[in-house]
Amino acid sequence: VKPASRFLSSADPERVFSSLTLIGAGESGDVYSARGPGGMTSSNTNGIVAIKVIRLDPPESEDDDEEEALWTLCNKHENILSLYDVFFASPESTTPHPGVWLTQELADRSLADVVSLKPSGLILRERVMARIVADVLRALCVLHSKRIIHRDVRSDNVLLCSDGRAKLSDFTHAVQLDLAGEARKRSSVVGTAYWMAPELIRAESYGVEVDVWSLGATLYEMCRGDPPRVDLSPSEAIKATAESGLPALDLEGGTTTTTRELRQFLAWSTEMKAEARPSAEMLLQTAF
């Protein structure tokens, strides 16, 4: 995987893009829709794109794991959000949007947007959930084959396109594992509380299995309408998950029934012991 620093555009993004409109905000940065000009050979900027502005310093090291993982967004896989260009707007300039600009494909909505409609009576059918899960698994197969952990799989980071495909997005917390020894595992605690795997919460060494857990928690959210233990504070939720794993799937107010295949998938993907969790590739072969 090539570090993003090799591909940083030298152009001033404030002059390249116009009509910036804020469409989302997060801990790491804000997301805008914008229009880009034609004639840029490395970009699909003839129409409207999404731009995530990350508030950080420009990447410099070619060995930086986070850079390499981030650049996999450029992967031309149908279930990974496309990255078109990377720009840097210096905090020392007069720009109102300093930071790294990731010019991305603009999707219709997030899975979180759809799940949030549960109070209005929208309940996802199981075959729709299965299709979304399969799409995310395909994306994870690509990442995991490159030893990359996403570390923040959740409904906000699964985007839904008009053609029905789901795409994994937001690689802010992604990291690439090394090839040898203990470096094959990580121990830094990152992610979002309600979707975090037990071993990640406990700051134990962990690998790509944490993404499988998070996808299981996302499936739980699709069934229930809320992520696991959303009634608890983040600190209380991660403590409970570290001690007892995923809670029972209470379907009151969510999906009315679930098949045995769905429940089996949920059980497999959220095994407390990481080594007992099937890989993304194995889960793609299950009946669900």
Automatic annotation (TrEMBL):
The yes or no answer to whether the keyword ATP-binding is present is yes
Q: Which domain of life is it from?
A: Eukaryota
The UniProt GO MF terms for this protein read: ATP binding; protein tyrosine kinase activity
Q: Where does ATP bind?
A: 52
UniProt keywords, alphabetically: ATP-binding, Kinase, Nucleotide-binding, Transferase
The record's section on InterPro entries has: Kinase-like_dom_sf, PAK3-like, Prot_kinase_dom, Protein_kinase_ATP_BS, Tyr_kinase_AS, Tyr_kinase_cat_dom
Q: Report whether Aminoacyl-tRNA synthetase shows up as a keyword of the record.
A: no
Could you tell me which residue ranges the Protein kinase domain spans? 17-288
Mark the transmembrane ranges: none
Task: Look up the coiled coil feature and give its residue ranges.
Answer: none
Q: Which PROSITE patterns match?
A: PROTEIN_KINASE_ATP (PS00107), PROTEIN_KINASE_DOM (PS50011), PROTEIN_KINASE_TYR (PS00109)
Family of this protein: Belongs to the protein kinase superfamily. STE Ser/Thr protein kinase family. STE20 subfamily.
**Name under which the protein is recorded:** Kinase-like protein
